[in-house]
Amino acid sequence: MSAASMNKALWSSAYRTMFLPYRLEKISFIPEVTMDVFFKSKYNYLILNRNYRVISDIGDVNFCGYSSEYQKRTEANLAGSIISFARNPENFKGVWIGNGTYLYDDSVGRCTKSITSYFQRLKKLFTHTHTFIGSRELDALKECSPNFGQKENEE
Description:
Largest sheet: 4 strands, antiparallel
Number of strands: 4
Number of domains: 1
Number of helices: 7
Strand content: 5-15%
Order of helices and strands: HHEHEHHEHEH
Radius of gyration: 16 Å
Structural class: alpha+beta
């Protein structure tokens, strides 16, 4: 199998839609004051896959949504899917495709050039100073924000 065929097979696979970052979405469900204490940055984003699910939460195949709905998720589902940047990633040059914080356009993604471009932009994104937020930070956040991780009807 040629490299071009392997790239096209990857791009057509469920692996890409589940495990490869598609876009970053600014976190809106945690107050910035709280984030500053725990995350040491106000540039905190969810890493979403092509199905708009956090990339660390592949077990709940029926859940899909944007950040306003992620407040209903448990902290375990979010560990590894929150990234904190030292600078505003929306201003990073040569990383995003189209408008916003999208890493690829899958309507044109099957050619080798487009796939190579994606991985180069992804590499460029992660060369910027960043930290992944893990379960320890999320546990501490939950202690200070009792409503974090609870469904709305549990309050």
